[in-house]
Amino acid sequence: MNFGLDRLLSDDALRAQLKGRRVALLAHPASVTKDLTHAVDALAACPEIRLTAAFGPQHGMKGDLQDNMMESPDYRDPVHGFPVFSLYGEVRRPRDEWMAEFDVLLVDLQDLGCRIYTYVTTLLYVLEAAAKHGKSVWVLDRPNPAGRPVEGMTLKPGWESFVGAGPMPMRHGMTMGELGLWFIDQFKLDVDYRVVEMQGWAPEAGPGFGWPLLDRSWVNPSPNAPNLSMARAYAGTVMLEGATLSEGRGTTRPLELFGAPDIDARAVIAEMQALAPDWLGGCILRDMWFEPTFHKHVGKLCSGVQIHVDHPGYDHAAFKPWRVQALGFKAIRRLYPDYDLWRDFPYEYAFGKLPIDVINGGPRLREWVDDAGATPSDLDAATQPDEAAWEEARRPFLLY
Fold first, then answer.
1. What are the mean pLDDT values of the chain's consecutive 10-residue runs (400 residues total)?
2. Residue 82 in contact with residue 53, Cβ under 8 Å?
3. Which of 244, 223, 230 is nearest to 355 (CA)?
4. How far is the C-alpha of 103 from the C-alpha of 93, rounded, in Å?
5. Helix 265-275 / helix 321-335 crossing angle, nearest 10 deg
6. Inter-residue contact 258 to 305 (CB < 8 Å)
7. Contact assessment for residue 386 and residue 169, using Cβ atoms and an 8 Å cutoff
8. How is the beta sheet containing 75-76 ordered, strand by strand?
9. 371, 321, 327, 370: which is closest to 152 by C-alpha?
10. CA end-to-end span of the chain, whole Å?
């Protein structure tokens, strides 16, 4: 199959439309061709394309910054000489003067299919800037490795943030190109926009169910996104960024596990299985031990739960990562009623709100966890209408 970048590079007619125009690129380390040439170098080698600027999202163009809320500086590309502007530094939106550096912005960002992944919000911000300044935006489309399933509550009005660009659920099931179409409709943007579509993407086909396993190499789109298992689990495990539990940062399996020194993972799994066995379809939960080399609980032996989604019996349609992680929280709250579960700091610069609420686009999930009388069916009742509504809302913008 071909991603959008590969199509642009191989299609003379597409590239001809960029001739004589100043081109900028928004990219990160996973912005590579099939043979793993970075988009910057591949595009710079095209005589029809004149790169005049580039942009890096969170974690930087180089993808070197491990944690959230670590800002990247502007710099000049050491090979090609054009400026590289940071969209996760002093600003999150392009400055007006940066927009004067180009005519067409190519967006080539590998997403993980989760609302909280900030590349989604960065796409909205550059679309808004392009509309303001009369610039064109082309999304060079890439797969959603989490595939088409939808899960989670819709972000509530007033809870917009850098990890919540608009009223969508946690697991949106769209590609970046499709999300751009939805953003333009949702926010009524007047912008010259096109998607350079993929060829041969089959999101319902196994074994990848979104990611073309055996056809394309995996390159980390951010430092703690090391493989397909993480991408599948991320719409649930990302909630751990709002909890005191470790999400596995500082281990070799970040965002595929959770744990802490003061819990009994085997008991947590048993409680999860007793509470809502139907929420645990598709995956295998295994109790294990880990010691983070940095981040939460650094240097401490943690009892943990690993979420396995790479086994022969993996069922993509049955796996519900958001519910699995919600159930993990609920089990810990039931086993340890006074456990200090929620972190309190200005997550992604959202002041005055608990991180877990910012992540979920409202307090409902946390309230469900903390309510001793709330059941799994209560959370389903609050969530399923949002999921059904999103399935319909996104339908006109699906390209594949």
1. 97 96 97 97 96 92 65 87 92 96 98 97 98 98 98 97 97 98 98 98 96 96 96 98 97 98 98 98 98 97 98 94 98 98 91 96 98 98 98 98
2. yes
3. 244
4. 17
5. 110
6. yes
7. yes
8. 75-76, 83-86, 50-56, 22-27, 104-108, 136-140, 192-196
9. 321
10. 13
Measured distance CA(304)–CA(286) in Å, rounded: 8
The Cα 223–Cα 217 span in angstroms is 16
Within a 13 Å sphere around the CA of 188, how many CA atoms are in the beta-carbon half?
Answer: 0
Q: Report the distance separating Cα 179 and Cα 113, nearest Å.
A: 10
Q: What's the gap between Cα 214 and its chain centre?
A: 22
Q: What is the pTM of this model?
A: 0.95
Q: What tokens appear for 336 in the block? A: 């340890």
Of 53, 45, 43, 49, give the one whose Cα is nearest residue 21: 49
3-state secondary structure 179-244: HHHHHHHHCCCCCEEEEECCECCCCCCCCCCCCCCCCCCCCCCCCCCCCHHHHHHHHHHHHHHHEC
The per-residue pLDDT for 348 is 86
CA dist 228 and 221 (Å) reads 11
